[in-house]
Amino acid sequence: MSDKIRVGVIGAGNWALHGHLRVLSLLPEYEIVGVYARRQEAAEKAAKLHNIKQVFASEGALVSSPDVDMVAVLNTAPQHAASLRLAIAAGKNVYSEWPLTTNTATAEELVKLANDAKVRHAVGLQRRIAPNNRYVRDLIRRGYIGKIRSVRMHISMNYLQAHRTKALAWTAPPENFSGVVQIYAGHFLDMLFAAVGKPVEIYAHMVNQFDKVTIVETGEVIETTTADQLVLSGDLGNNAVLSVHIEGGKRNGSGVQIDITGDAGDLRITNSSAFGDLGEDYLIEGSSGNNEDLKELPVPASYNWLPESNLPSSVLELANLYAAFARGFGGDDAAPSLEDGLWLHRLFDAFARSNETGRRLSVRDSSKLVLPNLAAD
């Protein structure tokens, strides 16, 4: 028996190659034992690049293999549920990329299946557990800025405009739940709430400005209602206010800016990229004085769980998630679970309801995010 977690990978797309396979090869706790993809040539390419011994002929063969302890589901969101059902039924631990699936009802089903089967599970919301975010979280808890008064976050990216590559065509159809808002708001709101706490009330406004998406290679035009901008305001409790803007297709100056204001100081977190390639690392600045310049706050070395590497920041975020899962960290340092993905699905339902009705909604019950019945109004 190997003392490593033996992983079977379903899906061999860009993020699987760029992120997961490099991470699983880096971390000593893991071994990639096999891969399956709908396109066999993609699986064979992945196997060759990362010295993976076995290319499986089907998902069923992969999940039933006695050599596989954990299944990493890395195909697109509409395909996640079927793959996860197979893996859970086979008694395997599972990892699913975010979005967990395409709707809340299916997310609820998957969580129940995983918990009933008593398998361990994780969802790809890796930004919450990155060293920079854990450090920000701890600075706030230690009182560096005092009581939070306001939180403002702006996330933008140059890509996902009206013209997209064939590889990104799946982000356009609304039924895929995989547009700018679903992917990036999911990742960054999860990251933010892990540091500052979850909202108790929200108001959401979502806009589609690219209602026709042209595929660059083929000229195909996809008509879509998928939102490419989210403007969110809310209440974090204790009279603290929240303001968020997520936008795709920004021509220039895109990236990340987060400002957290307290009654005793301020924090600012920035990055030139919402994705995070080589050299695109987060800068944390802060001051706990009054009317002072913000100063850089380097992340202490103790927050690093990883072996030395030259991997880009987005990939290292993912590596921290896998490290947390392997080492069984609990509490706030635990790897995010399918239940965390379900909470986000419910939050997106609240966004849609708020957008449709123009109402602020209470989301105080974080386990259910119960939406009020407004039909009588």
Task: Please tell me about this protein's structure.
With 377 residues, the chain is α/β, with parallel strands linked by helices. It has 9 helices and 18 strands. It has a 9-stranded mixed beta sheet. It has a 6-stranded parallel beta sheet with strand order 3-2-1-4-5-6, sandwiched between helices. Strand 10 (212-215) and strand 11 (221-223) form a beta hairpin. The chain starts with a strand and ends in a 15-residue tail after the last strand.
Compose a concise summary of this entry.
The protein has 377 residues and is an alpha/beta fold. It has helices at 14-26, 40-49, 59-64, 77-89, 104-117, 131-141, 180-196, 313-327, 338-357; strands spanning 5-10, 30-36, 54-55, 70-73, 93-96, 121-123, 148-157, 163-164, 201-207, 212-215, 221-223, 229-237, 240-248, 255-262, 266-271, 283-287, 295-296, 361-362.
